C-alpha cells in the first residue's frame, strides 16, 4: 500500500513520521481502521531501525485510539440502563417495605386475638391441645414482632444491617420462633395421635407435667438451634458486606442443619402421624358405618380426627410458606454460581413470614370453639354476623370421657 493511501495519522505524530520516512518511500506504513470508527494504526515491522528509533525520527506510538461519536454514546446508553435497573430495584425495595409494614400490622393483632380466645377456653375446659395452640400463637406473635423490626429497618434504609452482630441477632430471633412453630405442630400432632390411637388410656395420662416439660424442652431446643451462629463463631461468614441475609452472615452448614436436622425430619414425622391417624379413623368408620348408636371410643376418635384435620391445614400452610425459602436456601448453599440472595432475603422470606398470619386465620375458620370465642371478642354475634355454633366437643357423662380440645 503506498504512503498516500494512509490518510489518517495517529495522535498528531503523522507529520513527524512522514518526514522521517520520506527518505525511504518504498517502506510504507500499514494503516488499519477497524469497525465502529475506533482507529488503530499499526506500523510495519519491516521499517528500518533508523527510521523507527533513529535520533532524527521520533518513535511513533504503536497504538492510538480515537473514539468516534458513536462509541462515546455507549456510556450514555449504559447509564440509562443502569438507571432503569436502579429504579426497578428501588421499586422492589419499596414493595418489600410495604409488605413488611402490612405484615407487622396484621400478624400481632391476629395472634393476640387467638391467644385471648384460647386463654378463655382454657379457663373453662383445660386441655393439652389448647395449650399447644396457645404456644403456636405465641411463636407466631414473635414472628410478627420481628416483622415490626424489619419494617423499621426498611424505614431507616438498612442502617441496622451494617452491623454483623445485629444481623446475626436478627436472623437468630427470626429463626427461633419459626423452629418453635414447626416443633409445636409436631407436639400437637403427637397429642392428637395418642388421643386417637389410645382413647381409653389417653384420659388417664398425666397432662400438666408432660406438657410443661415438653414446652420447656421445645423452646430450649428452638433457642439453641436458632442461635447456633452466635454460639459457634465457626458457622459465621468471615467476610460480611453489610447485606443482611441468612447465607450472607451464616455459613451454608447452618442452613443444612436447619433443613435436614429440623424441618425435613419434623415434616416426615408429621406426615407419618397424619397418615396413621387417617388410617385408624377410616378403619373405625368402615367397621360400623350404619350404626345408630356409635360407641363412645369411636366418637372420641372421630372428634380427635376433626381436630387433627385443622392441624393438617396448618401443616400445609407451613409447607407452602416456608418450603420455597428452605428449598431456595439449599440451592443457594449448594450452587456457588447461583445468585438468589435478593430473592431469599426479600420475596421468599416474606412468604415464610405470612405463615404466621395464616395460622390464626386457619384456626378462626376451622375450629368451632375458637371461632365462637373470636366472634364474642369481636362482637359479631350481637350484630348478627356470626350465628352461634354448637361446640365441636361432645360432652359426656362424668367419669367416662374427658372434654378434649377441639382445635
Structural description of this entry:
The protein folds into two domains: 3-70, no CATH class; 89-378, Rhodopsin 7-helix transmembrane proteins (Rhopdopsin 7-helix transmembrane proteins, Up-down Bundle), CATH 1.20.1070.10. The chain starts with 13 loop residues before the first helix and ends in a 29-residue tail after the last helix. Mean pLDDT is 71; it is low at 1-79 and 384-404. It is an all-alpha fold and 407 residues long. Helix 6 (164-197) runs parallel beside helix 11 (252-287) and helix 14 packs across helix 15. The longest helix is centred in the first third of the chain and has 51 residues, at 74-124. It has 15 helices and two strands. It is 67% helix and 1% strand. GO terms for molecular function: G protein-coupled receptor activity. Belongs to the G-protein coupled receptor 1 family. It is found in: Cell membrane. It is a multi-pass membrane protein.
Quick tags:
globular, disordered N terminus, 2 domains, G-protein coupled receptor, Rhopdopsin 7-helix transmembrane proteins, 407 residues, mainly alpha
How many domains? The number is 2
Radius of gyration over all CA atoms, rounded: 36 Å
User: Which outline best applies?
Assistant: globular
Can you say what the CATH homologous superfamily of the largest domain is?
A: Rhodopsin 7-helix transmembrane proteins
Q: What's the CATH first level of the largest domain?
A: Mainly Alpha
In the CATH hierarchy, the third-tier topology of the largest domain is known as Rhopdopsin 7-helix transmembrane proteins
Residue share in β-strands: under 5%
N/C terminus separation: 94 Å
Number of DSSP strand runs: 2
Trace the largest sheet across and list its strands.
1-2
- Judged by helices, strands and strand pairing, the structural class is mainly alpha
Write the element-wise H/E pattern from the N-terminal end onward: HEEHHHHHHHHHHHHHH
Mean pLDDT metric: 71
Number of helices: 15
Question: What's the architecture of the largest domain, going by CATH?
Answer: Up-down Bundle
Amino acid at each position: 500500500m503506498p504512503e498516500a493511501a494512509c490518510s489518517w495519522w495517529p495522535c498528531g505524530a503523522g507529520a513527524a513520521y512522514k518526514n522521517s520516512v520520506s527518505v525511504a518511500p518504498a517502506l510504507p506504513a500499514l494503516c488499519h481502521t477497524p469497525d465502529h470508527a475506533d482507529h488503530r494504526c499499526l506500523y510495519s515491522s519491516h521499517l528500518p531501525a533508523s527510521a523507527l528509533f533513529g535520533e532524527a525520527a521520533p518513535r511513533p506510538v504503536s497504538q492510538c485510539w480515537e473514539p468516534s461519536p458513536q462509541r462515546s454514546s455507549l456510556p450514555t446508553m449504559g447509564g440509562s440502563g443502569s438507571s432503569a435497573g436502579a429504579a426497578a430495584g428501588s421499586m422492589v425495595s419499596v414493595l418489600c417495605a410495604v409488605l413488611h409494614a402490612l405484615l407487622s400490622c396484621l400478624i400481632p393483632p391476629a395472634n393476640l386475638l387467638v391467644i385471648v380466645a384460647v386463654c378463655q377456653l382454657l379457663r373453662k375446659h383445660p386441655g393439652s391441645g389448647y395449650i399447644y395452640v396457645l404456644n403456636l400463637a405465641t411463636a407466631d406473635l414473635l414472628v410478627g414482632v420481628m416483622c415490626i423490626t424489619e419494617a423499621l429497618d426498611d424505614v431507616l434504609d438498612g442502617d441496622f444491617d451494617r452491623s454483623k452482630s445485629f444481623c446475626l441477632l436478627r436472623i437468630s430471633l427470626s429463626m427461633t420462633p419459626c423452629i418453635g412453630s414447626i416443633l409445636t405442630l409436631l407436639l400437637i400432632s403427637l397429642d392428637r395421635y395418642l388421643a386417637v390411637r389410645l382413647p381409653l388410656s389417653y384420659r388417664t395420662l398425666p397432662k400438666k407435667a408432660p406438657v410443661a416439660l415438653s414446652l420447656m424442652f421445645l423452646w430450649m431446643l428452638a433457642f439453641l438451634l436458632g442461635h447456633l451462629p452466635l454460639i459457634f463463631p465457626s458457622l459465621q461468614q468471615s467476610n460480611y458486606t453489610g447485606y443482611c441475609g441468612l447465607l450472607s452472615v451464616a455459613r451454608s452448614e447452618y442452613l443444612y442443619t436447619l433443613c435436614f436436622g429440623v424441618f425435613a425430619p419434623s415434616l416426615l414425622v408429621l406426615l407419618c402421624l397424619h397418615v396413621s391417624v387417617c388410617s385408624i379413623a377410616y378403619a373405625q368408620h368402615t367397621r360400623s358405618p350404619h350404626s345408630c348408636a356409635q360407641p363412645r371410643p369411636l366418637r372420641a376418635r372421630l372428634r380427635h380426627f376433626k381436630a387433627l384435620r385443622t392441624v393438617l391445614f396448618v401443616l400445609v400452610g407451613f409447607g407452602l410458606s416456608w418450603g420455597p425459602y428452605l428449598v431456595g436456601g439449599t440451592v443457594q448453599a449448594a450452587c456457588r454460581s447461583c445468585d438468589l440472595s435478593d430473592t431469599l432475603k426479600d420475596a421468599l422470606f416474606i412468604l415464610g413470614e405470612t405463615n404466621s398470619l395464616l395460622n390464626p386465620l386457619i384456626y378462626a375458620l376451622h375450629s368451632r370453639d375458637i371461632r365462637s370465642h373470636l366472634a364474642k371478642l369481636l362482637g359479631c354475634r350481637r350484630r348478627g354476623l356470626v350465628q352461634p355454633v354448637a361446640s365441636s366437643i361432645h360432652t359426656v357423662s362424668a367419669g367416662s370421657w374427658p372434654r378434649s380440645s377441639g382445635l
